[in-house]
Amino acid sequence: MTVPMCDMRAEYRDLKPEIDAAIQRVIESGSFIMGEEPAAFEREFAAYCGAQHAVGVGSGTAALHLALLACGIGPGHEVITVPNTDIPTTMTITHCGADIVWVDVDDRDFNIDPEKMEEKITERTKAILPVHLFGHPADMDPIMDIASRHDLLVIEDGCLAVGAEYRKRRVGNIGDVTCFSLAPTKILGAYGDAGIVVTDRQDIADRIRVLGNYGHSLEMDENAKSALGVQVWELVAEGFNERLDPLQAAVLRAKLPTLDDRIARRRAAARKYDRLLAGLNVVTPFEAEHVKHVYRAYTILVHNRDRVRAHLASKGISSRIYYIPPLHLQPAYDHLGLRLGDFPVTERTSAAMLSLPLFPEITDEQIEEVVAALQQAVTLSA
Asked: Is residue 16 domain-shared with residue 122, that is, in the same domain?
């Protein structure tokens, strides 16, 4: 039996009538840029997160970039984040002209360690950018407390954590701004690049709308039905072309009502992995009592990781290693002068991380196949 990391075709089969109808609706509307589909999805997603505003954008990367800009991040500023993440988290900081300040992580949930954060704050620090890695929320209470005491913004990278909860609050309803990726293999995925930003701050939401649409004024009615088209043309900034596509918005609207059920299926699969892996010489994912993990990835720690992964592959079992080596050891950041040993927890955990197949449609038989192959691999690699 081969087991993939995810199965997009199975998801489509589950939702085929709804998705087909959504796509057909957009095609028949003749409206392929902006319009009602993105606007409706924004309203529905904001309500899901418990936020006042949501702004659809072209990708998770665009969400981070535009959120940073809308929060006034620029040259001379520093943004605190983690090195065990994908490069959009940090390159968007640099693209705003600000400087990256990395903080090591907790060895249980792999998220930013608040106890190590305050010592990195300087007079140039403008924001904290925690990453909710693999779907487990960062410890937001101390992060928000530190931010409040130092008058800092909190911009959350929730790209792997749609639907996750921290102390009964959904990610997207905690910090000043939260950025989500809606790429195909994410918890809630479009059929191409897509992203969204949520916030309770009207000024930030408005600024993202302007910057994501070339810098057009919010006063422009770009959906006017008049034969004369747009009545006022006013540019208030040099913006970007980062609008959420109506076809993607329609697909996301079809999927959103099923999101909680699909997260429940992810969590059930994770619990089965937990039970079957008990007693094996691996560290299974941690879930704090006060959070709801959504398991974008089921990531274990295992000795001789590369040998274990090769054995799994020989049995037809897919696996992934994410963000390894971590960013501070990547050539793109050689100029920062960081080296091995600067972030010991990040380095130690990343050397042992291995993500196993997990998706809503995964069967008990597939999980059992993965575990049997993993048991063999761990024994052979001991």
From this structure: yes
Query: Which distant-in-sequence residues (6+ apart) come within 8 Å of 313 by Cβ?
Result: 319
Q: Are strands 99-102 and 78-81 parallel, antiparallel or unpaired?
A: parallel
The torsion angles phi and psi of 320, rounded to 5 degrees, stand at -140, 150
Q: How far lies 346's CA from each of 119, 228, 324, 330, in Å?
A: 18, 58, 10, 14
* Cα(167)–Cα(333) distance, integer angstroms: 36
Count CB atoms within 10 A of the CB of residue 141.
12
Residue entry with tokens 């529905």: 44
The sheet with strand 169-170 has its strands ordered as 169-170, 165-166, 291-292
**Domain end: 238, 257, 276, which one?**
257
Whether residue 80 is found in the same domain as residue 163: yes
Q: What is the dihedral of CA 39, 40, 44, 49, to 10 degrees?
A: -10
Same domain, yes or no, for 284 and 370? Answer: yes
On whether both 55 and 30 belong to a single domain, the answer is yes
Q: What is the pLDDT along the chain (382 residues), one digit of tens a residue?
A: 899 999 999 999 999 999 999 999 999 999 999 999 999 999 999 999 999 999 999 999 999 999 999 999 999 999 999 999 999 999 999 999 999 999 999 999 999 999 999 999 999 999 999 999 999 999 999 999 999 999 999 999 999 999 999 999 999 999 999 999 999 999 999 999 999 999 999 999 999 999 999 999 998 866 655 556 666 788 999 999 999 999 999 999 999 999 999 999 999 999 999 999 999 999 999 999 999 999 999 999 999 999 999 999 999 999 999 999 999 999 999 999 999 999 999 999 999 999 999 999 999 999 999 999 999 999 987 7
pTM confidence score? 0.95
Domain boundary among 214, 229, 257: 257
CB 164: neighbour CB atoms within 10 A?
A: 25
- Mark whether 333 and 244 lie in a shared domain: no
Q: Please name which of 346, 378, 360 lies closest in space to residue 298, comparing C-alpha atoms.
A: 360
Check whether residue 311 and residue 220 sit in a common domain. no
Residue 137 lies in a domain: yes
Q: Which domain holds residue 281?
A: 259-381
Same domain assignment for residues 156 and 275: no
β-strands 195-199, 125-128 pairing: unpaired
